[in-house]
Amino acid sequence: MRRRSDVRRFLRNRDGAQAVEFALVAPVLIAFLFGTFEIGRVMYTESKVAEAASAGARAATVYNKASSAYTSAESTKVSDEVKNRFDASDRSLVQVNFSDTTFGTQNFVKIDVTYTFSFLVHFGPFASPVTISTTRYSPYL
């Protein structure tokens, strides 16, 4: 008889229930918090890449020629203008590519800016680096 009452008392005991509930819920909340942080970083970086590409298009207009022959000195100036929008540690992750494009009768230089974004928090194999890219056009004058 005593044994049965001990079992009932054990099953009614709620000491430590909050700790168990917290242990079950905390990983989900922490993952949600870090996921929100990483999404914010991706959105900020996308904005930064777009702004850098726009700065490159402005520089391409300033260093522009009448012909579509873009020299290496001009492309270096434009690339430097794009890369200067990033921190020194991030400049190696930025790639700037140029190509000629025609819309109708107007010639443009196409500026592709690509940035390799790495997550700070790794949630598994699906959190590999992400490539962020944008394109801007500058007319040949």
Give the arrangement of secondary structure elements:
Blueprint: H1 2-12, H2 17-62, H3 72-83, E1 94-103, E2 106-117, E3 130-139
Antiparallel strand pairs: 1-2, 2-3
Helix pairs in contact: 2-3
Care to describe what's here?
By secondary structure, the protein is of the alpha+beta class. The protein is 49% helix and 23% strand. A three-stranded antiparallel sheet has the order 1-2-3. Helix 2 (17-62) runs antiparallel to helix 3 (72-83). It is rod-shaped and about 95 Å long. The mean pLDDT is 85.
Name some characteristics of this structure:
141 residues; alpha+beta; three-stranded antiparallel sheet; 3 helices; 23% strand; rod-shaped
Gross morphology = rod-shaped
> In total, how many beta strands?
3
Rg, rounded, reads: 28 Å
Strand arrangement within the widest β-sheet reads: 1-2-3
SSE run = HHHEEE
The main β sheet shows up as: 3 strands, antiparallel
In terms of DSSP E residues, the strand content is: 15-25%
